[in-house]
Amino acid sequence: MPCSFVNLDGKFSHLAKNHPCLGRAPNKGRLHLPVSPACNIKCRFCTRAFNDNENRPGVAKQLLSAEEAAGVIDRAVSLCPEISVVGVAGPGDSLATGHALRCLKAMRETHPGLLGCLSTNGLMLPERAEEIVNAGVETVTVTVNAVDPEILALIVERIVINGIVLTGIKAAKILIANQMAGIGMLAERGVLVKINTVLIPCVNGGHIGEIAAAAADRGASIINIIPLIPQGDFSDMAPPDCEEINEAREDAEERLPVFRHCQHCRADACGLLGRDLSRELYGGALSAENTFSHG
């Protein structure tokens, strides 16, 4: 029977009620801290940038130091008392460096009532799972765009692991293995794992159900299907239409609940979904452009 929501009566009920990206907390707010300066993979749809005029992942007005991030948290919760989650979603990968976990661990000391969250491509998950738990992070989003190496090799141009650049099928196999192992390690340690999957119709369009099944088997709790908005190396690709998006969601929903209210938030987003307060928090104009990037 298809799933439609996170089990509010289960062990993650407190998260489902307080995390706006789990579909059951529309009146809760979130703050993204742009503290991660580097990425360790290159996706062909990704274009990261520093600016104040695009509304998409991978973009921030500026990179924050740990000290600056602490001040931003203080101002954000004063500006928006509804904030219940502080997460790191870029502008690089949250586990490619130690910045994100240091900030979230420090937040536990100053704001113990806030949930800690991070987003990652999952390459470093097995190596850093214990550190994630020790930092008090309660939810982790892992971007999984394929569990078939041949498909993933069409999406990910390269990975960098232990200072070595890898490409092709070899890189894809390592990334998939680390993602799946890391998801399992986090789930075993009581961390709620959410999956982000970018729907690229002519590449992974018929593969979404397999991604959801593999993630569910390792303990993931929810999945978010994100339609490709063409840019980067995929700028000439057609985005999915409504029928393709719905079909992908239905395929995924056979194994995992599907989050359907993604706002494609910036790496420095602040406020409630649909009510962004980044301008007030950081200053400057933050107008939206219809683009998407992650990783």
Report on the structure:
This protein is an alpha/beta fold and 295 residues long. The protein has a single domain, classed as TIM Barrel, CATH 3.20.20.70. It is built from 10 helices and 14 strands. The chain has helices at 13-16, 66-79, 99-110, 125-134, 149-155, 168-188, 201-204, 208-217, 242-253, 278-282, and strands at 29-32, 41-43, 49-50, 59-60, 83-88, 115-120, 137-143, 156-161, 164-167, 192-199, 222-227, 258-259, 270-272, 275-276. The strands form 3 sheets. Strands 12-11-10-7-6-5-1-13-14 form a 9-stranded mixed sheet. It has a 3-stranded antiparallel sheet with strand order 2-8-9. A two-stranded parallel ribbon has the order 3-4. Helix 2 (66-79) crosses helix 3 (99-110), helix 4 (125-134) runs parallel beside helix 6 and helix 8 runs parallel beside helix 9. It starts with 12 loop residues before the first helix and ends in a 13-residue tail after the last helix. The relative contact order is 0.20. The model is unreliable at 1-9 and 284-295 (pLDDT under 50).
Largest sheet: number of strands, sense, barrel closure: 9 strands, mixed
H/E element order: HEEEEHEHEHEHEEHEHHEHEEEH
Structural domain tally: 1
- Kindly report the average pLDDT value: 83
CATH topology: TIM Barrel
Structural class: alpha/beta
Q: What's the CATH architecture?
A: Alpha-Beta Barrel
Query: In CATH, what is the homologous superfamily?
Result: Aldolase class I
Number of strands: 14
Beta-strand portion reads: 15-25%
Termini Cα gap: 33 Å
Helix percentage range = 25-40%
